[in-house]
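Students often ask why we bother encoding 3D structure as a string. The short answer is that it lets us treat folding as translation between two languages. Here is a chain of 454 residues written in the first language.
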Amino acid sequence: MSKTILLLNPPGPKRLYRDTSCDTLSKANYVWKPKGHILFSTIIPADWEYNFIDASIDSLSPEQVYDAIAKNKPNIIVMAMSSVIWDQDLAFLKEIKNMFPDIYCIVFGSLLIDKLFFDIVMQYADEVVYDPLTYDLRNYNSHDKNFEMIKKAQGNKKPTFVKSFSPKHELFDGKGYRWPFVKHFKYAPVYTQFGCPYSCSYCPQSLTSVTVRYEDDVKNEIKNIYDAGYKEIHFGDETFGSPKDYVKKLLNWMIKENFNLSWSGYTYPGLIEKKFLEVMKLSGCHTLVIGIDSADFNLLKEYGRNVKKERTFQFISDCHELNIDVCGDFILGLEGEDERAVLKTIDFAVSCGVDYASFNVAQPLAGSILRDKIIKAGIIDEKSIGHDTAGFNMPGSSMINSKHLKELHSLAVRRFYLRPKYIIKRLSKIRSIEEFALRSIEGLGVLKNAMLTI
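And here it is in the second language, the structure alphabet:
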């Protein structure tokens, strides 16, 4: 039987990114296209009607959203929730269920892998979903509603392959979304999987099982993207490149089909050798984002990250030889780091040769072992939420207080991006007016947000 489903991002700050595993405020002017809702759109049955409302990016009031729900008359609402504005989102959920008690309400959000917050939400929602790719939407009202469904989505790093439809990309166009490394305004995010094959314990994906979409379904999506006139892809997987044979086949197919789509994405330096990078480049890759995280590679081993410094340098060198830009993700203030260690990481970011640097603050994210450590250290309690990796709201660590960690985060951004030689180099690599506009928008956003913490 045909149903109507409404994908809903509630009212909130325009730069707020709500996600299934990690939500945050944008570090610049970009706002990612909504991963959770895009993944949900891959499982909508072909005979169903669907719509999407992003009240945050469209600056809609709660009353405007209520009116839109009444007009749309959905059978199901799929709503995202954020830890950053938890109380506001929870109040919004309560009001939706009060006003529309007959609508089946599915909720997802990063906090909901914590039983404490799962149980709170289940007082109002009909169901919580963690991995959309494994969810049977057609039989939505026949699932178990207890916390065991979260546990079932954790622990197995061997990929499970699942069937999916092509995402409804048209729902997510024309709203000012941007991935910061795109060279074109018109782009589409592609997710080949949910979860990450690695287990870095400061990351909420450390326990998440891996679910992979069938290769033919992803190929069909990319062909639809090309036919619809998109110029660029953002491969949004936590680690694009795994499973290796799967990704190599996909990229070689893109080369054979001659789509001429440029792309960027996240990957893991220990996974990708030079020959793999050559295939990536031929298929349209221009930028790869890798987690470098800290200058202290021995400390990273304690958190389950085992890439050697030499391998990281080799990856950066290989990328530059192939004219692929590299963005290094860095984490400031990991538990066990003092100010001197953070300053070493900032120095390393400036000197290691990456083309971009994304500075994150170590945060007690739900589902990460780091959260357990910070709770045990007495820095926060189990109910503490709202922490943001972009550096706007942080608890600090046992060695660095919150105020000083903000100052160090601002220093890192200024030291990396305000180098005259760096600015000249970035400007020299721009090849179009469109790309110049995109880099200018994001550059100004990075500097503005850095200055807010001075």
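Translate back mentally: The chain has a mean pLDDT of 90. Keep this in mind for the problem set.
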